[in-house]
Design brief:
mainly beta, 2 domains, seven-stranded antiparallel beta sheet
Length: 150
Amino acid sequence: MLFASVNSSALEYSIEDESDWGLEKDAEGSLNTKDAEGSVSILERMHAIEGVDPKAYGVRRGCVSLSRIKHIRFQDDQNAIIDLGRGKKLLLRLHRECTGIKDKGFEYESRRGQLCAKFAYFNVIGRSMHCTLESITPYVNIEDVKPEEK
């Protein structure tokens, strides 16, 4: 699964040769970012990520209200997807890997009804390890979902 968070430094790249990316220039010299079926390409979707406003996802000063969170699912031992409902999701990233958090489950400590970067802690159930929340950013899926995955 390919996912991206809104962090412009993570999206910095240059296109030296458009053919390496499967892109072609149209008659006017602009890059064609649509695929053969006319849908928007992954590259175009990545550019659109830069315009995502974290406030539209309920993220203010690195915090999200606990009342907005429907579900948290860890993808690995450092990254989780927070489901806010209505198609909005956030990417939660821990400061470092928290061994076993995906498989064993977790509990978290927060302040004033909010989950905040740098202040919230996640604990693996059955262990005394504290894992600090590094960041919360909007999650945008840039891959096409195949019909059988929906």
